[in-house]
Design a protein that fits this description.
heterodimer; A: about 425 residues; 2 domains; two-stranded antiparallel ribbon; B: about 230 residues; alpha/beta; Rossmann fold
């Protein structure tokens, strides 16, 4: 147990007595500070909530902050070596990104080029015959062979994964279930659609037939769930081993490969690089994994806004400080005899200053407690409303940083508001007062 | 016998006016253990100033001040505060009790002053003992506005006595009381000298002064002994 010094105890006891004796003044001081401290708490809570929501959205598409990411050069050999390297490493995910069409074969799709649902049929996506993914855009070598008649088919990017990618990108399940990576691969690949792809399926009667270039035959996928992956265009996710039941090894040459690694699995990168170089891949020399900097990106976006609002809250707080200073000076003037008497009975000047500061600091703390309570209550009421606006806000809780900011704001306000009255109290001359 | 306090050639000049005024001009004052000393004098003669110097509220411009054998003429404020707490007890004409505190809390004020720390139980025992010594222990939980003048002054005396000081300094303690109550208060103060405490009583009242062991008159900045 922390043993408080005699002076600190004395300051707290006498300060507490003073506050109890002047309840109305204490209340008025709290009132004058309340808005300022509340503003600081609300700005901090808002900033933290917005940061959490923005980070959650960014991490959906980019990956968790600190995740290592690398893109592998194409080639079936490269992917085979990569697959072998990441085997039995649950904290590494190798994913192949391919263009696929689901629906009627031999038709012009509802969204040529893989355009989002909103732009389907209106030329919103890349031009026909152009494929775009996270490595860039290029001409589809099979574009010339594409049939012309309009049909019920959707073009989408398909991501085949060696392990569960949700450890890096926390997709929000909307319906159904996520892929199960533990069992044996099925012949009929299970796929999970993203929200945009699901819109096509809920709007049109699209047959479950999937065409992937290089596959030995068209696949009949089973749609098992829908997720929010933070992407705007239609996408589907499936197990890589289920895809390989249908894909010729040579077809891997055109697939884009991405690898996501947990920071502690950085050694995999070195092993892979060595193996690829040994296999004669010249491009592998420059292969590096870069950390995903989601938090930094979000921070950059929000920090200016946060400081502007904190500056405004600081101004409101300053007005509160002026109020507590005013009350403090008036109180010291009124208590001049008390302070002189306390000095007469041996109270040191520092303790007198401490008594006044203890009162204003306790006032600041009480104000902070009230402001934090109000903000937490407000957030609880707002949560129901916010949950409907954005999925990332559904499970927000009162951020501890806002509580700390409130306590610091209360203490600083108490210190600033009490400093001058404390100095005045310490300077009261005993002889003049006691003789009067 | 070593005196409790000994002031020698103490001078105090009031500055801050057009012409500085010498209030005390080479005053000598000695108080022994168990001795009551009354100081008489006209208003403005410097009685309270003398008490301020003795009680370390203020500093002399010249002269020497010994507490026992220790020279405390030029004591820094921090040490002066510690001495005020440990060695001196003060009683004032206007009682100076805090209205928002009970009688017991007013007495405890002298114990909760940052000069050491007493646990609550010990503090309470000391406070009740001091209140009992002046005959108002039954009023411990009463607040000053509910007490008569005499009771308030006795609570103030209990506050002065609670740390068992060596010197009791009383500045016109009966000034706001009727004669009968005033006599009771002087009795209480004088009884403290039986335990070896020194007492300096500043008063206008000859009758009260004459009950002390020695009576001094302050006139023209000089202290002169008066025959009782």
């Amino acid at each position: 147990m922390i043993r408080l010094s005699g002076r600190l105890r004395s300051a707290l006891i006498i300060g507490g007595q003073g506050m109890r004796a002047r309840k109305l003044r204490t209340f008025l001081s709290i009132l004058s500070l309340f808005l300022g401290v509340l503003a600081v708490v609300v700005v901090q809570a808002g900033a933290e909530t917005a940061r959490a929501a923005a980070l959650s959205n960014v991490e959906l598409s980019m990956g968790k902050d600190g995740t290592l990411e690398t893109f592998l050069p194409g080639g079936s050999k490269t992917i085979e070596i990569a697959l072998d390297t990441v085997k039995d490493r649950p904290n590494v995910v190798l994913s192949l990104d391919m263009q696929a069409t689901v629906g009627e074969p031999g038709v012009t799709t509802l969204n040529p080029g893989g355009a989002p649902f909103e732009h389907a049929g209106r030329g919103g996506g890349p031009p026909a015959g152009i494929i775009c993914d996270f490595q860039g855009c290029w001409e589809d070598p099979n574009a010339a062979a594409r049939p012309k008649p309009q049909g019920k088919a959707v073009e989408m990017r398909v991501m085949a994964m060696s392990a569960d990618v949700r450890q890096f990108r926390e997709f929000r399940l909307i319906s159904g279930e996520w892929l199960n990576f533990s069992g044996s691969p099925g012949l009929s690949p299970r796929i999970v659609l993203n929200k945009d792809a699901a819109k096509f399926f809920s709007t049109y009667q699209i047959p479950a037939e999937m065409q992937i270039s290089g596959a030995t035959a068209n696949l009949t996928p089973r749609i098992v769930g829908v997720v929010d992956d933070g992407m705007m265009e239609p996408r589907a996710y499936l197990r890589m081993d289920e895809l390989f039941n249908w894909l010729q090894p040579g077809a891997l040459a055109n697939a884009s490969a991405q690898m996501l690694l947990a920071p502690e699995a950085a050694d995999v990168m070195q092993i892979l690089k060595t193996r690829l170089v040994a296999a004669g891949d010249k491009h592998a020399e420059g292969l590096n994994a870069h950390p995903v900097q989601s938090a930094e990106m979000v921070e950059d976006q929000l920090s200016l806004l946060r400081w502007v609002f904190l500056g405004m809250a600081g101004l409101v707080l300053l007005i509160g400080v002026a109020g507590i200073l005013n009350v403090g000076l008036a109180t010291v003037g009124e208590r001049i005899e008390e302070f002189a008497l306390r000095r007469a009975v041996g109270t040191p000047r520092t303790l007198l200053a401490g008594i006044v500061l203890a009162e204003t600091l306790l006032t600041g703390l009480l104000t902070a407690a009230a402001a934090i309570g109000c903000a937490a209550l407000g957030l609880r009421f707002a949560r129901g409303f916010l949950a409907g606006q954005s999925a990332s806000l559904a499970d927000i809780s009162f951020p501890w940083q806002a509580g700390v900011a409130g306590i610091i704001a209360g203490l600083i306000a108490g210190l600033l508001g009490g400093l001058i009255p404390a100095i005045r109290a310490a300077r009261i001359p005993i002889a003049t007062v006691m003789r009067a | 016998m070593t005196p409790l306090i000994q002031l020698t050639g103490v001078t105090k000049i009031l500055k801050g006016q057009k012409t500085p005024r010498t209030i005390l001009d080479g005053v000598d004052l000695t108080v022994h253990s168990g001795e009551g000393v009354a100081v008489l004098g006209r208003s403005g003669s410097g009685k309270s100033t003398l008490l301020s110097l003795v009680g370390l509220f203020d500093r002399a411009d010249d002269g020497q001040y010994l507490l026992g054998e220790r020279d405390i003429t030029r004591l820094p404020e921090r040490k002066a505060a510690a001495l005020r707490s440990a060695e001196f007890g003060f009683v004032f004409q206007r009682f100076f009790l805090l209205k928002h505190l009970t009688a017991a809390q007013n007495v405890a004020m002298a114990l909760v002053n940052g000069q050491g720390w007493l646990p609550r139980r010990k503090r309470r025992a000391k406070v009740l003992s001091a209140l009992d010594r002046v005959g108002v222990a039954h009023l411990a939980k009463h607040k000053p506005p509910k007490l008569s003048g005499g009771e308030q002054q006795r609570v103030a005396i209990a506050r002065a006595l609670v740390r068992e000081p060596k010197m009791l300094l009383a500045d016109e303690p009966t000034g706001a009381l009727d004669t009968e109550t005033g006599n009771l208060v002087i009795d209480v103060l004088h009884s403290a000298t039986k335990d070896g405490c020194g007492l300096v009583l500043v008063t206008h009242d000859w009758e009260h002064a004459s009950r002390m062991e020695r009576v001094l008159r302050l006139e023209d900045g000089q202290l002169r002994e008066v025959a009782v």
